[in-house]
Design a protein that fits this description.
It contains 19 helices and ten strands. It has 597 residues and is mainly alpha-helical. It has a three-stranded parallel beta sheet. A hairpin with a 7-residue loop joins strand 6 and strand 7. One of its GO terms (cellular component) is membrane.
């Protein structure tokens, strides 16, 4: 089935990929053929990058007629037997409507087509036209037959639209060409406009920046793949809403990229400078080097405490930012409803509360971080005083000359500056560690329902039989609210089964369980159910009833029951006992021999 709607939705990728969305494994030849059937191939080949042309967000780089023809090609690439055209030309001007209508007429040949339109020009070539009014068919026939009926509703609508189109054609002819020329000029200017940021990049840690970008790319792809693999219950949690996940993918990836990119180069350079400085200082004066090393250890301890503190704050901050992001996305997406409810003030208050919570977290950071930084700035003069005092003693004892003293102080300054560079990156390091931890938690999480797994039983000839056996289910987000309790349903192959009931009774839940969005808490859902090794997939009562059915299948005259209910609980024993009594009633001439204790 192929569908072309009134407003074509194109994704912000290439024309080739947009058409390929209609058929995932479509070849280049199939895509080209679908574009030709939709009369889109010619204008695509005139574009600078042809099928590799990026259409922009929602196809903004293309006109309405071009988008509609690409959407038609996307519907035709799968070679549908049934084509649905839902007012496919109603949003187009006269010129584009004629072009798209020709493509639609070509696409309709040889396949069943249902056309929904209020512009009657779109249905003139239909084999059968049905005119609706208040939900009822008031006229039907071909275009010629309906037009021949003077005074018919279809004839009146056609004449009214012909008069309207005559006026619109005049306006369309005077305005279309200048607009198209202007659009082409704008597209050309945008495509030729250079990105000057490429020329202004002065990053001297090129290798680290490239490796960081590549690592971030791999992490984003892997994270997105893991999100797609999670079960539906994972997305029911507030912290895993669409807005929170989008915020996580963007901000966490940026934090990791910054740290493993150019900042990692700064850290490596600083550590190397510090190590070399300490070693050389030990060569000239091990006494002064020990004092310096003690001070450096204090600085590293301060930096470690600051990173740890900021990491804890980041966990709280990520939660608040995720909620704020989800809230804003939800409000903007449902802005029409917000306007209808006139609740702008209330939603603004709720969003302000989230922003205020974020400010409180930052305020705590503004109190603690300066205290930790004061340890660095406050102890430096004291340490330098101790170094000068020790140096004075060593020089006085002639254990150190002035030349070596100057060298020690030079390497001391180099080592101290390298540590200072590291301490200035504590915020970036804490953000990166928190983001990396978030990614690793996602990577390590095992989905309860992995839709990418090919393990398990595969039904080679599925006929459509479905069975719910003693199913109990509650949504993970509402574990105390039981939706299904001992739900029993058997659907045979070919049956049409209807589920009715009040809202919230579990009708949609049954469908979601069949699609395996969730797993039941108890019970079993079976498709062409297999009993497993020694009936391991069935309960004792179920196995016993199947054994009875097997015995009754060839209508025996003598039925032997060897302690048939001895290993069951009272509930299953009653069910099996009723089955045995029913089997005896069905054939009064059957002889039964029962052994029981």
């Amino acid at each position: 089935m192929g569908v072309v709607s009134q407003e074509p939705i194109l994704f912000g990728t290439s024309i080739y990929e947009n058409i390929r969305f209609g058929k995932e494994n479509a070849t280049i030849a199939e895509i080209n053929e679908a574009a030709r059937q939709a009369t889109a191939h010619d204008f695509i080949m005139q574009l600078p990058n042809k099928y590799d042309t990026i259409v922009g967000e929602r196809g903004v780089q293309l006109s309405g007629g071009e988008k509609q023809r690409i959407a038609l090609a996307r519907a035709l690439v799968k070679q549908p037997a049934l084509l649905l055209l839902d007012e496919a030309t109603s949003a187009l001007d006269n010129t584009n409507e004629n072009i798209v209508q020709e493509a639609l007429d070509q696409a309709c040949k040889g396949r069943t087509t249902i056309v929904i339109a209020h512009r009657l020009s779109a249905v003139q070539n239909a084999h059968q036209i049905y005119v609706l009014d208040n939900g009822c068919v008031i006229e039907q026939g071909t275009h010629e037959a309906l037009m021949s009926q003077e005074g018919s509703r279809y004839c009146e609508m056609m004449r009214a639209q012909q008069n309207e189109n005559t006026e619109n054609d005049i306006d369309g002819k005077t305005n279309t060409a200048p607009i198209e020329d202007y659009d082409q000029k704008q597209i050309s200017e945008h495509s030729l406009r250079p990105s000057y940021s490429e020329f202004d990049d002065e990053n001297k840690y090129t290798a680290f920046a490239l490796s960081g970008s590549k690592l971030t790319e791999r992490m984003c792809i892997k994270a997105f793949a893991h999100y797609l693999r999670q079960e539906m219950a994972f997305f029911d949690r507030p912290e895993n809403s669409s807005g929170a996940i989008c915020h996580r993918l963007s901000s966490d990836a940026l934090a990791v990229q910054q740290m493993v990119g150019s900042y990692l180069g700064i850290v490596c350079e600083s550590v190397a400078t510090f190590g070399v400085g300490i070693v050389i200082a030990f060569l000239f004066s091990w006494q002064l080097a020990l004092i310096l090393l003690f001070y450096i250890i204090i600085l590293f301890f301060v930096a470690f405490m600051q990173i740890r503190w900021k990491a804890q704050l980041n966990k709280r901050l990520d939660c608040v930012l995720g909620l704020a992001s989800s809230f804003s996305v939800e409000i903007i997406y449902n802005m029409r409803t917000v306007k209808q409810l006139a609740s702008e003030t209330e939603f603004l208050r709720q969003f302000s509360d989230l922003v205020l919570e974020e400010f409180k977290i930052h305020r705590n950071d503004l109190v603690i971080s300066p205290l930790l930084q004061s340890l660095y700035w406050g102890t430096r003069p004291l340490i330098e005083l101790v170094i000068f005092w020790q140096a004075f003693i060593l020089v006085e004892r002639k254990e150190l000359n002035m030349n070596n003293l100057n060298k020690v102080f030079a390497y001391y300054i180099f080592a101290l500056e390298s540590v200072r560079c590291i301490t200035t990156l504590t915020r970036q390091m804490s953000d990166s560690l928190s983001a990396a931890q978030s990614f690793f938690n996602l990577f390590d999480r095992t989905s309860a329902i992995d839709n990418s797994s090919i393990d398990g039983q595969q039904l080679s000839d599925f006929q459509g039989a479905v069975e719910f056996s003693e199913v109990k289910f509650a949504y993970p987000s509402r574990p105390t609210s039981c939706i299904l309790n001992k739900f029993q349903l058997i659907i045979k192959s070919g049956q049409r089964v209807a589920l009715v009931g009040a809202s919230g009774c579990g009708k949609s839940t049954v469908i979601q369980l069949l699609e395996r969005f969730y797993d039941p808490i108890q019970g079993r859902i079976g498709y062409e159910t297999r009993v497993g090794m020694k009936g391991s997939h069935l309960s004792g009562g179920e196995k016993q009833r199947i054994a009875i059915a097997r015995a009754l299948l060839h209508r025996p005259k003598v039925l032997l029951l060897d302690e048939a209910t001895s290993a069951m609980d009272s509930y299953n024993e009653q069910i099996v006992q009723k089955a045995l009594e029913r089997a005896q009633t069905d054939d009064p001439t059957r002889t039964s021999l029962i052994i029981a204790h």
